[in-house]
């Protein structure tokens, strides 16, 4: 009962800093640190074993848990975990795996190359020993598989590897999505602990933590194989780590932010090519700030070497060891580590995705139109064109569009343009208080926001909201400012502004709950259709479009004997109509 009350205390007691709340906060923090370690080992161990020719296997999940437990033992000063910590961790893992198992990935990229890559890794593909097509029987080497292999063979594969470890252990492809909720909860647990050191009111700690992790891309992708939300969360973790390292006499012991930074750099570089650019730019910004401060203290050379060695060592390990199969392999085989996005034979993946009116616009123009545009999922084949709107206005059609995980125009939500404008003003006010009222140094905080803004405006593809989720750092800064003003004065004006702003931010994020809600609704039909398939001796299936090959691993999990058709067939449809099947007995 005591352990249960400690967890409940986080929810029911929001002020006063009671002992039970502090204890629960510490437990949540320790579980979250352990999860970050566990997921890190779920990437490191398979990546290292690839060199020895050992592929992803189920035993690696508990092995990584033991390795993480060993490191955690020394991180905590050789203290044994409390019973509440173990129970809390088990409950967290059980919830994440159960939801991932029950709610199917129904979205586009998740059922094309993402899920296909996870399935191929569980089938024994070693990305360092050849193409993913090598592990497929001849009968399954369809056009769709060959199309997806172009991305699976060459893209950064860190997220797929972690998901494959989970899927291999639990024997179900969908359980690979459990890492999404584990990452969200882990970053939340770390963030709330750091905030509790600097904020007096637990209500504000909870609110800022919730807003920080429930970013629109995270919410919409929580039960899919998309990776943009996870990339944002690890970017947030990395920036938080560097802010903590920038604080002299930080209440958070230095070994923790060093771990968080290492996990962030390794994950961001290996989950997506753009992730390497994102984390690299933030690291560069902090490095410059540290060098300027060191020069004033006549410690330039010392910091230049120590911080430079730290960043370079982490990055080189992430690229050359963990990312060897993608970055080094691409460089060796195609002359460019970022193939097929760059170099000879590169593929333009954005031409189809952007509205046709973007064709002759530069990225700044695209970003401004998308950012201040009406929320609509417009592609190049769509006759519609983006429409600008007044911030904070909305329509019902915009809310409906939020059921997609990759909304193109206004993709951060119907209220987000207004939220950002207010956040930008409050963030500037926050910077004026850093170093005096807040422990975060002004240069580092300012550089973080400046880099986020410049990337959103000028990086190619950043007009697409899921690629520029880091803009949410402005919203976090705004809430930090309001929290400190509330604690200092608590006037009526501050309360009204805080309440109104917080409400709009939560409503905007809530719109994207339509995406997992749609997943729940359609999963009910998928479970029913599954029973129909299992009653047949053998079925013939057609993926529409042909590259929706990830669904084939669902059929294997269900024990369904199937044959792939390269041409469209008539029959029952499932997975939003992306899979059509019929009994072999009915085939002429």
Main sheet makeup: 4 strands, mixed
What order do the strands of the largest sheet run in, or round the barrel if closed?
2-1-4-3
Helix content: 55-70%
The number of E-state strands comes to 4
What is the H/E string?
Answer: HHHHHHHHHHHHHHHHHHHHHHEHEEE
CA-CA gap between termini? 64 Å
Strand content: under 5%
Mean pLDDT: 90
The low-confidence runs, each spanning 5 or more residues with pLDDT under 50, are 1-17
Q: Any idea what the shape is?
A: globular
Q: What is the radius of gyration?
A: 24 Å
Instruction: Tally the helices.
Output: 23
Structural class, by secondary structure, is mainly alpha
Write up this protein.
- The chain is built from 23 helices and 4 strands.
- It has a 4-stranded mixed sheet with strand order 2-1-4-3, covered by helices on one side.
- It is globular and about 75 Å long.
- With 588 residues, it is mostly helical.
- The protein starts with a helix and ends in a 5-residue tail after the last strand.
Question: Tags for this entry?
Answer:
single chain; 588 residues; 4-stranded mixed β-sheet; 23 helices; globular
